[in-house]
Design goal:
177 residues, alpha+beta
Length: 177
């Protein structure tokens, strides 16, 4: 069964320039996710910065059973090298527009998952909504574990990112009210 390389994208969005495209990276796979959020880009970016506190996906799996915060917490501005979702570091950002992360290296996570580079991209639409897009680039380890992850991880990522984006949509739109 083939993995859908994208979820929630509109026509032409895969061809957009993402900040992660500027980072030298040898890719085994590239996956895209997208969602429309009825909120302004600044609010969506604030919620992305909450990734410092929790992954906003299935908390029982990737947040030790603790619920990801459902209210914005006043946190310091983002900076290069900061930890996000426990396993990533910030490698780039543009306020209210994008956030680029890379799996920590060297780390247990890099050993387990391989190299992961991803960008969240916020695009304003004429309707006043925004599109939150994600481009995920992967390089799997060249061992038995890597061969297993090459088949398992893209499916897991699809499920986890879909949940994350739907939750961000709900939290942003609830705040706009």
């Amino acid at each position: 069964m083939n993995l859908p390389a994208s979820w929630g994208l509109k026509c032409g969005e895969k061809e957009l320039a993402f900040p992660c495209d500027e980072v030298p990276f040898d890719r085994d796979g590239v996956y895209f996710r997208g969602i429309t959020i009825h909120a302004e880009s600044g609010l969506v970016f604030q919620w992305l910065l909450q990734l410092r506190r929790a992954p906003y996906s299935y908390d029982w799996i990737n947040n030790l059973g603790r619920q990801s915060p459902r209210k914005l917490v006043n946190i310091n501005p983002v900076s290069h090298g900061q930890t996000m979702m426990y396993i990533f570091n910030v490698v780039g950002f543009e306020k209210n527009r994008s956030l680029t992360l890379r799996v920590k290296q060297p780390s247990f996570w890099h050993f387990l998952f391989g190299d992961i580079l991803l960008s969240y991209l916020i695009l304003s639409e004429e309707t006043g909504n925004v599109r939150l897009l994600v481009k995920i680039c992967r390089r799997f380890n060249r061992n038995l574990l890597g061969r297993f992850m090459k088949h398992f991880l893209p499916w897991a990522n699809l499920i986890m990112h879909r949940k994350q984006l739907l939750l961000f949509k709900s939290l942003c739109e609830r705040q706009v009210g």
